[in-house]
Design a protein that fits this description.
Length: 246
C-alpha cells in the first residue's frame, strides 16, 4: 500500500447494522459512539432471520452475527461476497466440547460441526439461500486489518459490494489470562462499496492501548464521523476518513 492517500483502493460505507447486549438498534449504537463503553449482559437477539431449526442450533455469537448480517443483506446485491471475521469464533461452544471430551470421552457431532470457524456464516448461506462467495477469517490481533484487506481485494476484483460481519464473545474464565485486548460480546455487519470515503495508508505510530476489542474499535471508526483516522494495533496499517461518502 502506498502511504499517500488516494493512490490506493478505498471504500465507502453503504449500510450497517449491529447488535450487542443493551445496544439492539441503530439509534443505540449512534448514541454509543460518544461514550463507547464495553457491551455486557446476558441478553440474546431473537434472530428471526433463522428458521426455528437453525435458530435452536445457534448460540449467542451466531445469533448476534446473523441478526446483524440479515439486516443489510436484504438490500444488497445477491452476488455480493460475504466475509465473516472473528478472533475466537464459537469459543464458548468449543470450551464446552473440550470439557465434555474430558469428562465423557466423546462429543456431539452436531455441536462439533457448529464449532468450526465457518459454521456461523454457513448457517447464513443455508437460511438465506446465499450462493455468493463466502470467506471466514481469524487473524489474531490482525483480524480487523485482514478483514478490510480481504474486502478491498474483492472490490478491486469487481464485486458490486462486499458484506462484512465481525463478532466475538467474552472469553471464558479458563482463557481470560490469555486475552490481549478488552473482552465483550458484540456483532456488527456493514456493506462496503468501492469509493473514497475511507482510504488506506501506512504510517509508523507508537503502539496504542485500546479500550475496545479491535474489531469493535474498527466499527466505531466506520460509523463515527468524528473519527478521522483508525490505526491497526498490529503493523503500520491505517485508514483515513476523507468525508467523500457514496
Amino acid at each position: 500500500m502506498n502511504s499517500t492517500y488516494g493512490t490506493a483502493p478505498g471504500f465507502s460505507l453503504r449500510n450497517w447494522s449491529a447488535w450487542a447486549p443493551g445496544l439492539e438498534n441503530q439509534q443505540d449504537w449512534l448514541d454509543w459512539r460518544a461514550n463507547p463503553l464495553l457491551p455486557s449482559g446476558d441478553t440474546t437477539p431473537a434472530a428471526a432471520c433463522l428458521p426455528p431449526l437453525l435458530r435452536r442450533r445457534a448460540l449467542r455469537l451466531g445469533r448476534m452475527a446473523l441478526e446483524s448480517l440479515s439486516n443489510i443483506a436484504k438490500t444488497a446485491p445477491a452476488e455480493s461476497p460475504v466475509i465473516f471475521a472473528s478472533r475466537h469464533g464459537e469459543v464458548l461452544r468449543s470450551q464446552r466440547l473440550m470439557a465434555e471430551l474430558i469428562t465423557e470421552g466423546n462429543v456431539s457431532p452436531q455441536s462439533f460441526s457448529l464449532s468450526v470457524h465457518n459454521a456461523t456464516i454457513g448457517l447464513h448461506t443455508i437460511a438465506q439461500g446465499c450462493q455468493a462467495n463466502v470467506t471466514a477469517l481469524a487473524g489474531g490481533n490482525a483480524t480487523a486489518s485482514a478483514l478490510l484487506i480481504e474486502a478491498m481485494g474483492l472490490l478491486v476484483d469487481g464485486a458490486p459490494s462486499v458484506l462484512i460481519v465481525a463478532c466475538d464473545e467474552t472469553l471464558p474464565d479458563c482463557y481470560s489470562t490469555y486475552a490481549d485486548e478488552p473482552q465483550a460480546p458484540f456483532a456488527w455487519a456493514a456493506e462496503l462499496v468501492a469509493g473514497e470515503e475511507f482510504m488506506p495508508g501506512t504510517q509508523l505510530v507508537p503502539p496504542v492501548t485500546k479500550t475496545l476489542p479491535e474489531l469493535l474499535d474498527l466499527f466505531r471508526f466506520l460509523i463515527d464521523p468524528q473519527q478521522s483516522v483508525w490505526h491497526a494495533t498490529s503493523g503500520s496499517l491505517q485508514w483515513q476518513r476523507t468525508g467523500q461518502s457514496c
